[in-house]
Amino acid sequence: MAGRKHLQPIVPDGFYHVYNRAVNENILFYSEYDYHIFIMKFKKYILTYADILAYCLLPNHFHLLIKTIDYHNEDLFCKFISGQFRKLFISHTMGINHRESREGNLFCRPFKRIKIENEKYLRYLLFYIHFNPQKHKYTSDFRNHKFSSYHVFFNGKKTVLDRTFIEYLFNDEKSEFLDYHNYYHDELKYEKIIIEEN
């Protein structure tokens, strides 16, 4: 069961680590099509209220780093964005249930979200999200995982990501972005840092 720290309200003008997994050890993405559709649905339901700064989609769970927009009414915003995430999960569930001939809930409820309060943690969280496929042994090298934002920041291709802030974090330098990821990976620093588990 998620603790209070994992269920902080999503308020305007904030950075959040949002993550969730499938119920009962099911999977969320059965094919490449499902991954692409989830990203499209995120764009449809969430981008009005938040920018996506990083993501990683894995067979049974996902991680997002988002930045919520500025909004004049905090209570109303919390209601709006929670409803939009609910629509996202319901829509993805309905699609999977139809294609895979299954029934019932697909996502755990409630989904987890943690507000990020400082830049140092934000930078490390970016690595942690990208490293997740290797952490959970879906690949031997997180850099090879197709469905994460690791390759997206400096490739110049059209994306749902808002690259601006992440580029700012790394001084608009691809080499600094890559060096940061390599440092934490190659030096096994991730084993020594306490971070919220999914």
Topology:
Blueprint: E1 15-21, H1 32-45, E2 50-58, E3 61-68, H2 74-100, E4 112-116, H3 119-135, H4 163-169, H5 174-186
Antiparallel strand pairs: 1-3, 1-4, 2-3
Structural overview:
β2 (50-58) and β3 (61-68) form a beta hairpin. The model is unreliable at 192-198 (pLDDT under 50). The radius of gyration is 16 Å and the shape is globular. It has helices at residues 32-45, 74-100, 119-135, 163-169, 174-186; strands at 15-21, 50-58, 61-68, 112-116. It is α+β, with helices and mostly antiparallel strands. The termini are close together. It has 5 helices and 4 strands; from the N terminus they run βαββαβααα. Strands 2-3-1-4 form a 4-stranded antiparallel β-sheet. It has one domain: Alpha-Beta Plaits. α1 (32-45) packs antiparallel against α2.
